[in-house]
Write a structure and sequence with these properties.
The complex is a heterodimer of chains A (117) and B (108). Chain A is mainly β and 117 residues long. Chain A has no helices and 11 strands. In chain A, strand 4 and strand 5 form a beta hairpin. Chain B is built from no helices and 11 strands. In chain B, the strands form 3 sheets. In chain B, strands 2, 5, 6, 9, 10 and 11 form a 6-stranded mixed beta sheet that branches. In chain B, strands 3-8-7 form a 3-stranded antiparallel beta sheet, with no helix packed on it. A two-stranded antiparallel sheet of chain B has the order 1-4. Classes of the chains: A mainly beta (117), B mainly beta (108). Chains A and B meet through strand 4, strand 5 and strand 10 of A and strand 6, strand 9 and strand 10 of B.
Amino acid sequence: GAGVSQSPRYKVAKRGQDVALRCDPISGHVSLFWYQQALGQGPEFLTYFQNEAQLDKSGLPSDRFFAERPEGSVSTLKIQRTQQEDSAVYLCASSSETGLYSYNEQFFGPGTRLTVL
Amino acid sequence: AQRVTQPEKLLSVFKGAPVELKCNYSYSGSPELFWYVQYSRQRLQLLLRHISRESIKGFTADLNKGETSFHLKKPFAQEEDSAMYYCALTTSGSRLTFGEGTQLTVNP
């Protein structure tokens, strides 16, 4: 079946603009994650949903970042008033389910490369 | 807080040579450790996880709790192994903490 998809694949924004990044997880996957990957760095956790509930948003760097998953499927990461330091690849991942003591493989999307000028 | 360290950003070996990608972690409990790989123009994918104790594409990794290490090894590197490798851990079964990655180049 289809993997995780993300759109747009590339986004160029002027400083101060708002952007919205979309993630379509694998059908039926309960858990959805957003990561930010700056150039030359590993991915860093932003936020996590289980169905429509946002269970962890501790990684969001500022209140300019907002994520939602209203129907427990597609998710949108919104960045308001973009800054140059927001330039990065934003990765979405989904997994079938997560438990306190078990890990289910996270399947990653291709990412959205955001460049803020 | 947990942390993953990959001391080598770049690693270059010749085809057929052994390769070892180093990974150290800091966490006082018992995390789950993973190696993820990203081949050129492909998405990030799971290579192996410590609890499965399996060999994938000839790669193995042993969790050493005493040294808090999870080094990735392959006895004979192949050109198709050239990729970016990330060590990662989870303590909660959900969010992953990644290292900075090691770019492996296998030369012919």
